[in-house]
Amino acid sequence: MDGSLALEIPQIFPEIALSVFGIAILLLDTFLPKSKRHAATGIALAAIALTAVFTLGLVGEDGTFFSGMIVVDGFSIFLRITFLVVGALTVLASSSYATRENLAVGEFQALVLFAIVGMNLMAASNELIMIFLGLETLSIASYILLGIKRSDAKSNEAALKYFLLGSFSSAFMLYGIALAYGATRTTNLEAIGREIAAGSAGMTLIYVAVGLLFVGFGFKVAVVPFHVWTPDVYEGAPTPISAFMSVGPKAAGFAVLVRVLMVAFPAAYAKWLGLVWLSAVLTMFVGNCVALVQSNIKRMLAYSSIAHAGYILVAVATRNQEGVAALLFYTLTYALMNIGAFTIVSLVSRQGDRKTYLDDYAGLGFKQPGLAAALSIFLLSLAGIPLTAGFAGKFFIFRAALESKFVWLAIIGVLNSAISVYYYLRVIVVMYMKEAPDDWSPVAMSSSAIAVIALSVLGILQFGIFPDMLISLARSSVIGYR
Amino acid sequence: MRNYFPLLLMFVVVAATVGAIIVLSAVLGPKRRGKVKDSPFECGFQPFQLPTDRFFVRFYLIAMLFILFDIEVVFLFPWAVVFKALGWAGFWSIFIFIFVLGAGYVYAWRKGAFQWE
Predict the structure, then answer these.
(1) Could you list the residue range(s) of the whole structural domain that residue A62 is in?
(2) What is the pLDDT of residue A1?
(3) Which of A68, A239, A271, A281 makes a 20 to 30 Å CA pair with A29?
């Protein structure tokens, strides 16, 4: 084998390990008797742990590999770790869910691993084509995961909707890639940036390309006006997958958006700033205002996730290191609180995902105080109440916005946080101030779900009370980031 | 532009002639319809079911598997042509590719995707 290529393979060990374990789980699943198939969960967790070791081994690396296709830097390593955390929590949360709903555990966990591979590749791509490859790997895995409840009409609807709109948005993105290539004769992000800086690219084509790429990524991260699929998909999907979809692909999409806008198109900043600014404001307002009137808690969390995408867009608009560090902090902590909240929603919804309405939470605070307390912490953190990680994340984003003189964005963001408090608190009010119905059936707990909830609560409080550690880690990850 | 005038003239004459023939035959031609005359002639059989009917999902599965393993060959042919030039790097790359496909094959086989019943 070509010597230099072989030396670069360790840079993608994390992705190789995940793929190998994913395939192994698929094969093993077909040979094991049905009673032993839950072993897939353990193998998937082991795979993620091993991958984390490989990824941490890359800390300190800084450079591009495989002819400039893969970039390994602090930013991509931080995100790879974020995706592994998301993956581990999803695997844990879905193991008991898959048993309860009688789903194929092996395929489920293998697809989660493949989805992490896709997200990792997105975070580490330095090439528009590689970005597309990672995005499709992630998307194909998530199409199947969304529709994995094959006999459930809503799950099928979610999968089909996401598939159709996802392919549609991929087409926009490909067109953007084609135009960028047409204008600069390269798909390498850094080379595109150099070509534009040298003034040898047609700027009209570049502006159209940036617009089309923004449409493509906007669909994936669900920002207004490309958000319409979100509530239906999150509502119909198996709940652990709703949790996964609301944090994993979103973080990966933002990672790509940041890298493409900042590395390839810094020269078009004046143009894309307008897009991002407008979209951020619309996303925050639409997400929060529509969430106010939702009675289904999964739809409410879907609109809340749209609103959070708006806050993250504020961080993108700042275009400075502080903003990117805030984005990294926010995506990781947001993953903890959202997966925690969705895990409790999936427990409370009982078998068949039936009880997902606000009224189904009446009296939960008295019947199962621990569960209600944990959900309260997640919701308070989503609302951004001090001492939770949600507050710290919003604080860093708005401070970065103020430092870059985006006073209005910061003001609109804070206003929206205030709006959001209403619908998060409403759930808490229902849990603690309404009587439980007479036909109350206790919520069945499982050790893996308890582990997810406990880890998320710990993380939220840790990063909420002592945010210094994580934010300084995020800041050191983006040093030298252009 | 003048060179193209005959071409334009030809378009006009052709359109006029064809239009005139169609209109004239529709207006003047005798129309004697009958059951035999209205049936499809030399155009295949009388359709005996609607094309929007549902069909067995297994056809879809078989078609998908066929495409998967068909594409495999598409990648193998160019590799085989330049096998010597690529050397061991090419060999191991293709080996990994075949291995992944083989794993997919075993998965499909164990899941019973190749059984019709």
Answers:
(1) 11-478
(2) 41
(3) A239
